[in-house]
Amino acid sequence: MVETKLIIRNVKARAVLAPLKQPIRTAVGTIPSAPLVLIDVTTEQGEVGRSYIFGYTAAALIPLVYLIDEIASDLKGKPVVPMERMREFDRRFRLVGWQGLIGMAVAGLDMAFWDAIARALDQPVVCLLGGTPVSLPAYDSYGIIDPKVDEKAILRSVDEGFRAIKIKIGDGDLDKDVKTVGAVRSMIGPKIKLMVDYNQSLDPVEACRRILRLTEFDLHWVEEPVKAEDLRGHAQVRAAVSIPIQTGENWWFPRDMAKAIAAGASDLAMLDVMKIGGVTGWLSAMGQAEAATLPVSSHIFVEASAHLLAVTPTVHWLEHLDIAGAILADPYRPVGGTMTARGPGFGLEWDEKAIARLASGRH
Ligand SMILES: [Mg+2]
Asked: Residue 223 belongs to what H/E stretch?
């Protein structure tokens, strides 16, 4: 029998601002480059588990590194047993709660633990979870676009095999939404699925008004029309329109998801592997989604999501939005509009030269 019990020796967290191919433009602000924290969990057995987390803002990076160092000082000598470690984290952070930097740090550690175990077995994480790598349908995910400027890129996505495109809207008035969505629908034709994301920018009354006008464009979903935590508002919009409502990227750990399901806030579920609580959180969330018959899509984190969606009973779409490619030695790439998990672990190897260049400011 292979000895798989790994003991945590050391945790290293590093901040990096990873360049993006395109800044991510949303109705509530632009993300110029990806603020990431890279986590390496070294074990006594020599295996190193890796993960990265997305800080959303560069201002969060140094606090996240500090927090991970602080949490890790209590982990040395403990076994890499993610379910046990999560039980401890849940007790330790009960009074502060999961939303925010604590949840992000814990989820990053959890992902690195699962990566270490899978690497020790020389397996992809998906196999450790009882699945196998499968080719998952992905949609190409755009920010706020200019239909003229971005037409070439969108048509290229379709040529490459993507069967679905998502754009962000809501940065102007309803007329602008209608013009943008109409232009993209005529560009891609009736067969390619089209989704839109309001990034929480509307109130429920305005959301209903706008979405009803967009019905003619046969949208596959409308994402976060109102504030993510306004579950009642989401339910209100959902009851008033016929286009499916998508939320979930801002559910913090599985208990937040339970509240959204109880409120009838969404037709679909979009899980963010970091905010939902790492692999351990995802496993609980995917069970809830199955029980509630909610189709599950992923949010950023293409690598980990390719593993987790492959074992998710109600798998729907993988979001293709690459935030870490610039610091990975062998970034995941879509093939014919699909993505497939690979190992060992999550299949993440750092491009140390690129990371050193970014750390020194020489881009
Ligand atoms: Mg979104």
From this structure: strand 221-223
